[in-house]
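U., I forgot to send this yesterday:
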Amino acid sequence: MRAAVLHEIGQDKLEVFDDVEAVGFGPGKVRIRVRATGLCHSDLSAMSGVLPQPAPFVPGHEGAGEILEVGEGVSHLRAGDRVVVCWLPSCGSCPACKRGQTELCLAGFMNAGTPNFKRPGGDVFGFAGTGTFTEEVVVDAGCAVPIPDDVPFDIAALIGCGVTTGLGAALNTAGLQAGSSVAVIGCGGVGISVIQGARLQGAAEIVAVDPVVSRREAAVRFGATRAVAPDELADAKQQITAGEGFDYVFEVVGKSATARTAYDNTRRGGTLVVVGAGAMDDFLQLNMFELFFDEKRILPSMYGGGDVLRSYERTIALWRAGRIDLAGLITHRVPFAGINEALDQMRTGTALRTCIEM
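Result:
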């Protein structure tokens, strides 16, 4: 079967092979035919080494498809079921799951060190224990979440990561209050989803901050009340909050520099939500006095900061009701053979989300 493989961390191009085999099928596992997959910035971060991932590997973790085969002991799925791939499944029994913090379950991460593909030259890993830049993938049954028949595969793929992460940051993590002022730094697919979440919660002012003109224009279409370049944020802060700072600031880039900017633009007593996934050697510097004196809440948001399955259900309900726009997030579509074109679209910021049609 075909799959896109990165040979070594640091390379910027994928190579599409047709001699890749999905392995590991057995009890508790399912085999999925991938029908659509989105390209998330985390895929680029894994390719560059910002996020830890053994290589060679098949990127992709934002996918949807249909079940081809179920292993022994899998009773809630059957061949033909339509599913979204969940890269962070919960085991239900670890301390985090028992506390209701299923997004902190480490079961999914344990899968990342086990190869789930192979080629004639040896084992190949799947990014985050999945790897959806492929025609078929074998994953734990918990990674396959059934979806209703009316949800298209491309929409379902977005729910698998970017939309769940962004909406959840606003709805779950921040606890955003109606009438509040909001700034969102970084307006790709996840940032736009944060904006839609802030709009749902009744934010009075939503300022989108991004260096790419097309993304700023998109942010306004999706609910931002104003969109500015990074060097215009100070003026927006002054005009909207009289210099005090925003009630909520979302950092959706994953860099200490933008996190520091987010902190500086959060009002005293306000809330900074860190959504972007950054590098282990990129340190955010804060002094002890400002932490004490400003009393700003700093809230990391992992995969939307809530129960993943409930978040999926909520997103589908909001989409059906017309309260959020998911189709509009897909600005580009490319065939599988053009996957490196999709990578370039993400790097340059020309795409909110590119759908790779399998």
